[in-house]
Amino acid sequence: MKSCFVSLAISTALAVPMFAHAAQSQPARSDDARPNIIVILADDLGYAGLSSFGGEGIHTPHLDNLAENGIKLTNFYATSTVCTPTRVGLMTGLYPQRTGLDHLYHYCAPDEGLSPTEYPSLSQHLKAQGYRTGVFGKWHLGAAPENRPAAQGFDDFVGFLDGNIDFNSKHNTESEVDWWVHHERKAQSGYVTTLLNQAVVDFIDREHESPFFIYLSEAAPHVPMQGPNDPPLRTDDFYAYTVQRHFPQQEYMRRYSEMVASMDDGVGMIMDKLREHGLEENTLVIFTSDNGGEAIGVRHGQVNGAHRGHKNSFYEGGIKVPSLAYWKGTIAPGGINHDLMVTMDLFPTFNALTGARIDTELDGMDLTPALLRNEPLAERDMYWQHTHKLAMRRGDMKLIYHKEKPELYDLARDPLERTDLADDPDYRAIYQAMIQASAEWRSQTAIGLPAERQLGVAKAYASPCKRDLTKFNQGKTYRWTEQGGVIASPGS
């Protein structure tokens, strides 16, 4: 599919009313056939993160029910192998490299973020079509006011701005309480996933008479690993980005499965609320993940199934994610689709469903032929880049730059990427062609930091946040005992 970028023709003067104005006049539901849209984006959920996708010891009855009565998307990829760029792809329908945001955003760099004027978001677009819009959970697209959800066209926001927070204390990666309720920073007790579940059903209660777009950007099962009854891992006087390396296998998987189950409970709540208001047949639900599971999850529980790799790599385990679509009465139940799809395809898909028009050619592809009519999608090359790493897929062939010499795999014969064909003379022509195509794509697409990277050459990202954690933690360290995890001073 040919890609080009032209600025979206959406007025940058769109009024973005705050929560207090949620009762403004909207089209009556009885006269509006446009579907409600709910996107649920799990965080670091690997391909085998749901029981319907082969997860062992994972209990997800509500999501499994949607998969059984909707369509499973078995060849769905995240736009990136880490958090922020996948969200950029979802919100813009573009390769994140076009925006320069292919690396993790840091909360302490307020000048970094997705610009709603340069790259108008899906939420802005749907709002212009009369949709009520809400984002619940992880934002991770900019902490400055001009990059926050309100500026991006969201009527409501409950959640956090940073990449992850403690599920109980709400402390983010800078040891600050990072919790927002209706766009305002506010203290709120409770387990993060439970709070998000309730916020979504409350939004449906308020807005069910208008078409609505809900973006449930889950915190789970991203670190820090905590089930609903686990104590805080970050406090006012102790911080660690992650401590799961200390967990034995059984403890890690107990926490992981409880985090996923809590997320699944929320799906049950949402579906019950849709039925209560008679909206199930007028609501499209998409569930997917922002990237594959982390390396420790692979070691402890094969959270990516048999796939090679994990988050932050471009093997299948890093970018292939569990996905499904459900729309009662519109999507035929029990379907399985193997077409190549990617997160940034959702933007043009929703445009097609809502009758919206934009003056641009997006990188994503409209999925409605496959979802609604079981028609095959057109073949296309697909690209991924993050820092110095790059991947390309052409048909069943996949090129990967993890080092300066790229690897080549034939996914039809070798879906687990065990045999590198880079030196196989039978594949020399396709190998060279894909190397050239990748270089051309990057030269035409990437700006900013993505364009500056040298492929295959690792270079540490210079974080603007440098803290003395030893001093902050006053000598305390996290260690695991048979009685459970503790924060203890040396020698205690």
UniProtKB/TrEMBL annotation:
Species whose genome carries this gene = Ferrimonas pelagia
Protein name per UniProt: Sulfatase N-terminal domain-containing protein
Q: Ranges for the Sulfatase N-terminal domain?
A: 35-355
For this UniProt entry, which residues form the secretion signal?
1-22
List UniProt keywords, sorted A-Z.
Hydrolase, Signal
| Xref: Pfam families | Sulfatase
Family label = Belongs to the sulfatase family.
Key word Signal present? yes
Do you know which InterPro entries this protein is assigned to? Alkaline_phosphatase_core_sf, Sulfatase, Sulfatase_N
Task: Return the SUPFAM superfamilies for the record.
Answer: Alkaline phosphatase-like (SSF53649)
